[in-house]
Amino acid sequence: MDSFTAIILAIFLPFAAAIFIPLLEKFLKHRIGWFAAGIAFLSFALIGIVAPEIIHGHIIQHSIEWMPSIGAEFSIYADGLAMMIGFIASGIGVIIMSYSNGYMSHKEDLPRYYQYLLLFMGSMIGMVFAGNTLQLFIFWELTSITSFMLIGYWRGKPASVYGATKSLLLTAGGGLFMLAGFILLHAITGSYDIATMLQNPAIIENIKAHPFFLITLILILIGAAAKSAQGPFYIWLPNAMEAPTPVSAFLHSATMVKAGIYLVARVHPIFSGTEAWFILVSGIGIFTMLLAGFLAFRQTDIKAILAYSTISQLAYMMTMYGYTSYHEPGLGVAAATFHLLNHATFKACLFLVAGIVAHEAATRDIRKLGGLRKDMPITFIIASIAALAMAGIPPLNGFLSKEMFYETSVEMGHIIGGPFTFLIPAAAVLGGVFTFAYSIKLIDGIFLGEKHHDHLPEHIHEPPYTMLVPAAFLAGLVILFGLVPSIPIHNIIEPTTAGIVLEEVHLHVKLWHGFTPALFMTIITFIAGLAIYTRYDNIAAWQDRFNARYPWVSVNYYYDRIVDGAKGSAKGFAGFAQPGSIKLYIYAILVLMVILFTIPLFMMTTQVFSVNLNFDIPFYESVIMILMVVAAIAAATLHRYLSAVIAISAVGYLVSLMFIYLKAPDLALTQFLVETLATIIFLLVIARVPQTFKEKIPKNILLRDIMISLAVASTVLILLLNATQGIVPPFESLSHYFLENSVKLAGGHNVVNVILVDFRGYDTLGEISVLCLAALGVYNLIKSRGEGE
Amino acid sequence: MTTLITKTITKICIPLVSLFSISLLLAGHNNPGGGFIGGVMFASVISLTYVVFGLKYTKSFFNPSWDKLFGIGLLLASLTAFGAIVFGHNFFRSAVEFIEIPFYGEIELASASLFDIGVYFVVIGTLLHIFKNVGEDK
């Protein structure tokens, strides 16, 4: 199998498997989770097949034409960066799906759960390997949508629905800004292709010099920040914690929230090394790191702590990717990348532990927990490893990447100079202090101290192995990456960094690196962290007073006001635009049609009626036409529904007869059958309503109706007269093309059908989708009528 | 309408019209016909039995889940469109091939026919789904 096929399979296998899950569920029952985990493993293995090639510095590129005329292609761009996140998405996917077998109750709607998970995983893998910005956007929004479905998995809970809506509004909305940025990039470079932009220094120079540079960068960064919960967009992530815990572990710590970071890394070569890049990316990063770190420390729910800590850890990465300057092309990139990998391991592990604790102790409130170390010793050890890694304690992997963070911060401070020499490292240390404090708080709050017997069940025990082993595996990775950093560094971090900075990179990461400034900063972090942790009550009290006094200093406050306001105005608009009377809709449609047809007609043709009218109509046809007119008048004037419906179908049948005379058997047959079915449906409906019109139509309304009918009829007449004579100058008849090419290109002699299924197949696909939606709409209309009202 | 004559004629018509709808579907590429018209033809014969014999009787011998049918049709149609990508062409590129079969002669294999079959299922499924729901409504 060549590498391209392997990557395509890795992307689409989860999508294909998701389709078959409802079928397989009949045989596998609650073991369906293992099937999903198997699919995730296959994707992982498929990426593993191509990994050696990528590690050796080869970039796999290939594209399939999709809509060549607008530059949209389906292309694959697989470098180290894509490979790393692809590995994380599928690898953590295996762990999460295995763990879910123990976490999710067998009574729940498991097929839906695993379908969403697989769809999400496929979208995520598709996004990282996307070689085209439009394609990246599509998969990006797919991850937002699947995340929305997963957060709202418990549809009955209002909090789930609120959290899901919030995340969709913010992340998918941010994606639209990103799309605008991509379109501007296209305007500058003339390409949607990522490889073209990255591999062409001239294009990059051009982008950096372009007047649209700043606005493009800001638009793309809004998308990235919204997805990674940075800056003011952080508010969706805590609410997303309403999702089942494995989902949070997967989406909201290990994979989806990293999509924004991935995007920043992906566009790094294009935008980095400028003032704007440093100020925006590092600025957002530092601000978010401090804010979220402080807020995390204040939470009492385990998942809330983890949510805010995720935000602040992602901010570390943002900050480091922003460090790249003129003088130091790749400063911070390797550190950020390493931290990204480490964070995926320890944070996913912590979430799994949170799930275990909630599962066994039936609460996630840290004030009620405590003293669980005796009941759950294995979980305690796993949790401690992960939390200490997050705190940055040697010899765990978090220590290494945090040291690199401090080192690069010191360096960046020196490069900028002035007061920033100390401000930037100080901000980094402060972020680390909060991280240390909340990491300690997690362990202390759950496992140490006295057990609160009045809040907790008497017998708490270790979870089943399906939940314990995945968490233990991640904890093992944390230790492995810490003790033997050369494994991840050489195999993953170096190719990834090379993919970001576009040159070969060699890194040396060791546990003991001498008495450097970073080491002293770490020591300060530990001392200050402990100090802050002991002062916890005072800080909490201060913040409560502050929040009570200034409720408007909160992004959530504005979010809720905007969303509630939008709901109100949407209601008002719907009331105005959809009054509910079918008559009004038909007026609107017809009048608009008349306007849209007549205005261009008058603009294009100087003499509307200057047509050589050819009234040479054969006898049979004129008889049919007269009958049609009679039937139409009958339909309008008859006073019983039944007779009116029959008159209408008479018009339809006469039209189909007309088609036969005009030598269009296809149309005649269709018209005939559709007319029959429509009549039957009409009859089914009118069997249930009063048989005669009761209402008297007032004179003025009747007059208005007649006016509108006349206007429509004369518009159509004029249009037909013009069209049949072929006198609309700028337009030519399309039929020649189809007549000439129908046999040549599609091998079919029935031109009408060839147009439908070959030349305009895309249209037909859209139409049959609409048909399906219409059927579902009818179903809903009829079924929902009895309920509620 | 449920006289003996209509009942007898309907019973004769059902298999004939069903076969005719399939022949319309397959002939569509070169002669009058196609997925849409074939589907409507099939739906009309089912609705004929409904009008003559009533919903309950119709369901007793022919009651697939129509909503699934249009799902399958839509899937088939989209897979045909994606199929071209597997062979390295544009999305929705259609292909046509002529094959010689002994004793029968040349037949035409067009990817568009697969697409047409998808359309056929969607049309049948949609129409009969609507029918069933309107007819069942109390």
Which spans of chain B of ≥5 residues are poorly predicted at pLDDT below 50? none
Low-confidence stretches of chain A: none
Strand content of chain B: 5-15%
What does the overall shape of chain B look like?
flat
Radius of gyration of chain A: 33 Å
Strand order of the largest sheet of chain B: 1-2
Subcellular location (chain B): Cell membrane
Domain Na+/H+ antiporter MnhB subunit-related protein (chain B): 5-128
Keywords (chain B): Cell membrane, Membrane, Transmembrane, Transmembrane helix
InterPro entries (chain B): CPA3_antiporter_subunitB, MnhB
Write the layout of secondary structure elements.
The complex is a heterodimer of chains A (789) and B (138).
Chain A: H1 3-28, H2 32-55, E1 60-67, E2 72-78, H3 80-103, H4 110-128, H5 133-151, H6 158-189, H7 194-198, H8 201-209, H9 213-227, H10 236-240, H11 245-254, H12 258-266, H13 268-271, H14 275-298, H15 302-322, H16 333-361, H17 377-391, H18 397-416, H19 420-446, H20 465-483, H21 486-501, H22 517-534, H23 536-549, H24 555-577, H25 582-604, H26 619-637, H27 641-661, H28 665-686, H29 699-725, H30 735-746, H31 751-759, H32 761-786
Chain B: H1 4-27, H2 35-53, H3 55-61, H4 66-86, E1 96-101, E2 105-110, H5 111-136
Organism (chain B): Methanohalophilus mahii (strain ATCC 35705 / DSM 5219 / SLP)
Subcellular location (chain B): Cell membrane
Domain Na+/H+ antiporter MnhB subunit-related protein (chain B): 5-128
